[in-house]
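During the reporting period the student researcher (J.K.) took over the structure-prediction task from the postdoctoral fellow and processed the backlog of single-chain submissions. One of the processed entries is reproduced below for the supervisory committee.
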Amino acid sequence: MVQANDSSSSHPLFYYTVSYTKVKQTMKKFLLLVVPAIATSSSDGTFQQSEITNVLDHQHASTSSNGSMANHHTACLALASFSLENFDFMMHRNGEPEACGVAASSHAAWEKVLRDASLCDKQQVDKFELEAVMTSLLMNILDTSSCGSTDDATALPGLPGFCDMGPNRTVVQEDHEQLVRTTYTQSLPCRFYTREGLRITSLEQLQQAATTVNQNECALVTDSDTHTCSVAATSTNTTIHVYAVPAGRVFMFAPAKVGEEFHITHAGAPDAAPIVLETLSISPRVFEIHNFFNLSEADELIEKALSETSDTMGLHRSTTGSINATINSKRTSENAWDQHGVTAMRLKRRCMETLGFDEYQEHLTDGLQVLRYKHLQSYNSHPDYLSDAPNHWYNYDSGGVGANRFATVLLYMSDVAENDGGATMFTNAWPHDAPPEVTSLTHKQELDLFRSTDDAPLFTPGSWEEALAAMCQRRFSVKPKKGKAVLFYSQFSNGKEDKSAIHAACPVMRESIKWAANLWVWSGPRAESKVAPRKWPPSEDELEAAKPKQLQAYFYNSKNDPAMANAELFWTESSFWSKLGPGESAGVNTYKGHECKSP
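J.K. obtained the following structure tokens:
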């Protein structure tokens, strides 16, 4: 391997690496450029940072003046269905509405980088190859000062330092071994998404993403009033907005203002209307998800929770804790778990699709938690982000190589009367339009105001319930309504905890009953995964303890067999469990005596 050092900058070690074979293969092609670089390299044979950058620049400039490749090349099969000639990339870092860079590209530039990656002879590149090629292309055409890391001064400059966060901050996902390193620098690639969270897995999808500038997608200069992209006004090329996500990280929506919407057409909505995310808050990052689930699905979840007879899965006093679940005096609700029911699995898949996952990954989800809040029950302020367990092997530090809860989708499954409380309140946030006389209130002032209301006699003076009810009067909150869904993030896009997402379940007052459900999505594999992040090697006993305690059977209708169009699942000859239509999945806790039979 040939490693480049930059002794003249604040980066003592420049981590670009290229194979010696690749250097030898390209020596003739770049003879005029590379020979002087070798002549002036250090005694250990390494290149300087500027020389590596020049090689990349020279590769981009190696096409002819009219943008076409040398005529001795055969057609590039991988580009057979890619018809765009000249277009602009608007590059966004994950979670950022403003573009970090803009660069012109062309069909010829794509052909160049595909040939250098030895992929032109393939009729279809897979998604991992495409991401490596696309990262290599953008590294060539973007300025090296654009789109770099924003939180690591030691990272590589430019896009390589953003895409490859290094061994101490790259989360190992279950597909890590399938990642393809970039052609010229051998660094890890980014994944690329549309604004709406569709992962770009083919050149056809990239072409479909080529649109005129969306007013919600900002370029380098933003007008805060009209929120338009000023750079694009000077270009006549087609514009492609792409949102880059570093290797091992997960996509995050990037709103610029409250009220902004994201139309999610790639996720399977329960009814005819598409799923739409409406931005409710920027910090914390909170969205209402319109059309995410319907009233029938809400009823199905409640019915299953009420009929569950297992002590651990059925309704019981809610607990807290990631390792050892314990009763918490400041969480008075009841909950049940629905890990593999038909409706639960349908919603978990829909959740993953909505959040930008192109494949369902069970190891990134918890079971669906169904909640019931009755008279005056509540849950005091808390994060969904789990605290580290010092004596446990699992690594919860998602800002490094660990994993934690990344996003929560909260489903409201019953109506609560207008003045009966039950809202989800974000402790550290105020409504975006709250006047200064509200946002400047001290907690004592909030309490004094609450004690003058008709609700005050419901609570013991000085209790945590009274303090919570007082905060729920004016802080930023989302009111429950049957069929409403809310998404919020517990991490920033770099994996660090977002403490503005601390929230509470406000007390339910008078006669209302609040039903809700939590869907939690993790930023990396949970403990039962073979690639779960570890602080130290766990013992055999610890690994065994991480496995599910109850044996579960999982069924999925792949839609491939027409005879299974009306499939049903039974756990004995006559004991019906659920319907299992095309594309649906279901799971059951299995016990001795259960039988599985083919139709």
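The committee noted the following: The first strand starts at residue 2 and ends at 4.
J.K. will present the remaining backlog at the next meeting.
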